């Protein structure tokens, strides 16, 4: 009897542990964060990585070079059967100098200053999108007709992919991001996107412009820093990482504000002044990256007193870490509640941490600031036009978000 | 307050520029940190502390 109880307690819980309420960290993750030491979880293929839920532990695993992000490594806690096919060639799955070289080819186009340079055009795109929404008349799906439209247009303009092409790419990326889709479909969708980027990159060789893809092909490849085929995967990565993530945040953030009318009132009172802190708070509060991040230890190490052996996997909950009272001041409004004027939150890990921290974060910040500001300024009567029970979330997604959000005004 | 940056550790995320734009900048070509001043005026010290806390590469050292 005793043996049986001990055995039951030691069976790692299945991973990923997905939220059942959009704004609440699952209890299992909270318990992991508050307990001493670390526990293992069990993934789809029986691997048993360590689960990290504390802010400090997540930062350690994401910045210490003893942890590798190479999904092709033996024993890696892969998030799906075909993660090697869909991500294995991406530079975000490289470590050290190989990764840094590739990251630097795009990061200079995505600095805070460059993101600010795009603000006027982003504002134009948001306003045009709102015009079309108003003309269409409510109720409309804010995910399809606002959030995704904005982020897709912005990332495609910056990358240099024509809008008509971009729409097809975005459809294909949906399959790539759906961990519940057929593995063969996900791989085929990924190949389709690569073909489109490859073709566009060839066109930029003939007719250079000031887009990111043009610079990659005409500078990075021309200087011999990277092969043509590698910049194709970088382009695919930029488009993939750049639209769905931010769109999920815009949709889910709009819902969070609508469901917290006191916070929406604070935001509305002076959106230009509040938007920067509101965006950091919504990033912290919503932490849409789920399932990932993950790493594998390449040497023996330890985290929070727990020995981690070479070959051990680790998985992390950014959602749990971003509500860790050891890392954020919890003396005011509780960390489980939304406070758009909350101070000192910018060290959250919603964009990750370490050498792989989100390369598009500064662009995403400007997009969110403008999108929510203009949305609530232009449509002061914005309200939910569906029953709360009918809200559907991306339970199986790499990133959490709404599948649709019907609104009227 | 004195501030130092480690260019080799820097990952170009630009968090220091968002936190304290009068103290930090990034190189145009590769996004690596550039220090605009090594002597931080009192008015900027809170912002520099924020930059230290949010730098994803722990590449900023600040002290008196």
UniProtKB/TrEMBL annotation, chain A:
What's the domain of life for this entry? Bacteria
Quick check: keyword Oxidoreductase in the entry? yes
Which controlled-vocabulary keywords does the entry list?
Heme, Iron, Metal-binding, Monooxygenase, Oxidoreductase
Which Gene3D superfamilies does the UniProt record give? Cytochrome P450 (1.10.630.10)
Record-stated family: Belongs to the cytochrome P450 family.
User: Any idea what this protein is called?
Assistant: Cytochrome P450
Which organism is this protein's natural source? Pseudonocardia nematodicida
TrEMBL record, chain B:
Source domain of life is Bacteria
Q: Cite the entry's keywords alphabetically.
A: 3Fe-4S, Electron transport, Iron, Iron-sulfur, Metal-binding, Transport
Residue ranges occupied by any 4Fe-4S ferredoxin-type domain in the UniProt entry:
1-29
**Which InterPro entries does the protein's record reference?**
3Fe4S_ferredoxin, 4Fe4S_Fe-S-bd, Fe-S_cluster_ET
Q: What cofactors does this protein use?
A: [3Fe-4S] cluster
Entry function: Ferredoxins are iron-sulfur proteins that transfer electrons in a wide variety of metabolic reactions.
Protein's name in the database: Ferredoxin
Natural source organism? Pseudonocardia nematodicida
């Amino acid at each position: 009897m005793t043996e049986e109880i001990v055995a039951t307690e030691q069976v790692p819980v299945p991973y990923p542990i997905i939220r059942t309420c959009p704004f609440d960290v699952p209890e299992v993750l909270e318990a992991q964060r508050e307990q001493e030491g670390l526990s293992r979880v069990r993934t789809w293929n029986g691997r048993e990585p360590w689960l990290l839920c504390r802010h400090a532990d997540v930062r350690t695993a994401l910045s210490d070079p003893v942890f590798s992000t190479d999904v092709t490594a033996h024993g890696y806690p892969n998030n799906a059967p075909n993660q090697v096919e869909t991500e294995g060639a991406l530079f975000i799955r490289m470590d050290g100098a190989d990764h840094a070289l590739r990251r630097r080819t795009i990061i200079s186009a995505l600095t805070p200053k460059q993101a600010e340079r795009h603000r006027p055009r982003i504002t134009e795109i948001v306003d045009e999108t709102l015009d079309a929404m108003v003309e269409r008349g409510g109720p409309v799906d804010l995910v399809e007709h606002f959030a995704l439209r904005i982020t897709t247009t912005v990332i495609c303009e910056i990358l240099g992919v024509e809008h008509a092409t971009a729409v097809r790419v975005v459809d294909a990326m949906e399959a790539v991001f759906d961990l519940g889709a057929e593995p063969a479909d996900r791989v085929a969708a990924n190949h389709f996107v690569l073909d489109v980027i490859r073709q566009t990159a060839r066109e930029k060789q003939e007719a250079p412009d000031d887009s990111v893809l043009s610079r990659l092909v005409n500078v990075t490849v021309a200087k011999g820093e990277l092969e043509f085929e590698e910049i194709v995967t970088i382009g695919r990565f930029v488009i993939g990482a750049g639209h769905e993530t931010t769109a999920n945040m815009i949709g889910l953030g709009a819902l969070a504000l609508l469901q917290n009318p006191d916070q929406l009132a604070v935001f509305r009172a002076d959106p230009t002044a509040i938007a920067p802190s509101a965006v950091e708070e919504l990033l912290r509060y919503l932490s849409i990256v789920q399932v990932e991040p993950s790493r594998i230890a390449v040497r023996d190490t330890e985290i929070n007193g727990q020995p981690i052996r070479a070959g051990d996997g680790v998985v992390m909950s950014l959602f749990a870490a971003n509500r860790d009272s050891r890392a954020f001041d919890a003396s005011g409004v509780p960390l489980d509640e939304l406070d758009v004027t909350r101070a000192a939150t910018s060290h959250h890990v919603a964009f990750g941490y370490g050498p792989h921290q989100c390369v598009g974060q500064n662009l995403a910040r400007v997009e969110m600031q403008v999108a929510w500001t203009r949305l609530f300024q232009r449509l002061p009567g914005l309200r939910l036009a569906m029953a709360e029970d009918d809200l559907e979330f991306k339970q199986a997604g790499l990133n959490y978000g709404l599948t649709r959000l019907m609104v009227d005004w | 307050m004195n501030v130092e940056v480690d260019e080799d550790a820097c990952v170009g995320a630009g968090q220091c520029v968002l936190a304290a734009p009068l103290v930090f900048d990034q190189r145009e070509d590769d996004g690596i940190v550039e220090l605009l001043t090594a002597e931080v005026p009192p008015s900027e010290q809170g912002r520099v502390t924020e930059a230290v806390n949010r730098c994803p590469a722990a590449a900023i050292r600040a002290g008196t």
